[in-house]
Amino acid sequence: MATGDSNDILNRVKMLIPHRWFAWGAPLRDAILGGLSDSMAWCYSWIIYTKQQSRIATSTGPFLDLISYDFLGRHLFRKGQTDDQYRARILAVILQERVTRAGMVKAINWLTGGNPKIFEPWNTNDAGAWTGPGPSTYTFKAPNFAWSNTAGSPGVGGWGSTDLPEQAFMTVTRLIYSGIPNVAGLSGTANKGGLGAWVGGGGPPFSNVGHSIEWYGLNLQQVGITNDMIYDTINTTRPTGSIAWTRIQ
Question: What does DSSP say about strands 117-119 and 243-248: parallel, antiparallel, or unpaired?
Fold first, then answer.
């Protein structure tokens, strides 16, 4: 017998009945109370479940997805993760570093699966110097001289400028697929190795186009990471007052 199950509720009710009314063992009475206890045990199990879903630490299943949506909107998808894995990501994102370059890089990495390439004209670690192959914390992990050194090692190679304060040029590579897979557009790109929707004319490679076509509407889910999601992530984590010029590829 466990707290809240049918037998537990039945015994609790029986202890509230005056002893002079019934004997402790009364089959007809217990049958009636037992049926009511089954219903109350079912209700009690839902109370426990509801209490469990009210906290990130204990929430499970679709309620964990709802918690993620309440806190983070559509910025964090489950992607087949278990409850414990998804819970850890939710907590990490909620408590993540923000309004810093490092925090923005980490957020984009969580979203896209890769680190962005960032160039700040004011940052000498990005632009490099004419000489001095010292260590650097630059994203590419390259030495902080501007051009190739005498050993042929590449440098940072950016052209710094004090005319672009609080600005950065960023390239974000979307490693996680976005959109409906394996569906071509209306215009084929066979000469560039693309899928192509229609059969092209002329000789190869134009004649082998047209095997991938599909009509789709708003009712079909477009899964993956969209450009808007990337822009939203940047805007919610970039340093305050800064401009992040972004190219997505």
Answer: unpaired
Give tens-digit pLDDT for 121-164.
888 777 766 655 444 444 444 445 555 555 555 555 667 788 88
Strand 117-119's sheet: what is its strand order?
117-119, 167-172, 243-248
With vertex at residue 49, the alpha carbon angle to CA 34 and CA 70, rounded to the nearest 5 degrees, is: 155
ω into 205 cis (within 30 of 0)? yes
pTM beyond cutoff 0.85: no
Contacts of 37 (CB under 8 A, 6+ apart): 6, 7, 9, 10, 13
Distance CA 128, CA 186 (A): 45
How far does the chain reach from its first CA to its final CA, in angstroms? 60
CA distance 44 to 170: 54
